[in-house]
Amino acid sequence: MGQVLVRNLDDAVIERLKQKAQSRGTSLEQVAREALAAAAQLDDRKAWADRADALRAQTTYDPTWDSVAVIRAYRDYDRMERLLDEQLAKQTTEAKEAK
C-alpha cells in the first residue's frame, strides 16, 4: 500500500476530521483514509444507477402514500402552531396590560 503526505492542510479541516474521528471512536488517519477513498471512487452513470437501485431496494412502494398530502399536513400543522403562539403571546400581553 502506498502513502500520501498532505501539506498545508487548513487547521479547521484537521479539527473537523479529528472531531469526526472522536465521535466515531476511530483514528484521524482512518477518517482521512475513508474520505480519500470515497473521493477517489469513479462516479460514472452505472455506479450511480447501482447505488440508486440499492437504495430503492431498501424501501417498499406504498401507492396510498401521497407526498403532497403530507407536505400540506405539515404546513397546516406549522401554521396552526404559529397561530396558537401568536394567540398566547397576545393573551400574555393583554394580561400584563390589565395589571
Write the layout of secondary structure elements.
Blueprint (H helix, E strand, L loop, with lengths): L10 H14 L3 H13 L4 H13 L9 H32 L1
Low-confidence stretches: none
Counting helices, strands and paired strands, the structural category is mainly alpha
Number of helices: 4
Order of helices and strands: HHHH
Largest sheet: none
Helix content bin: over 70%
Query: Radius of gyration over alpha carbons?
Result: 26 Å
Mean pLDDT: 90
DSSP strand tally: 0
Shape: flat
Strand content: under 5%
Give the CA-CA distance, first to last residue. 77 Å
What do you see in this structure?
73% of the residues lie in helices and 0% in strands. It has 99 residues and is an all-alpha fold. Among the domains are: 9-42, no CATH class; 65-99. Helix 1 crosses helix 2. The protein is flat and about 75 Å long.
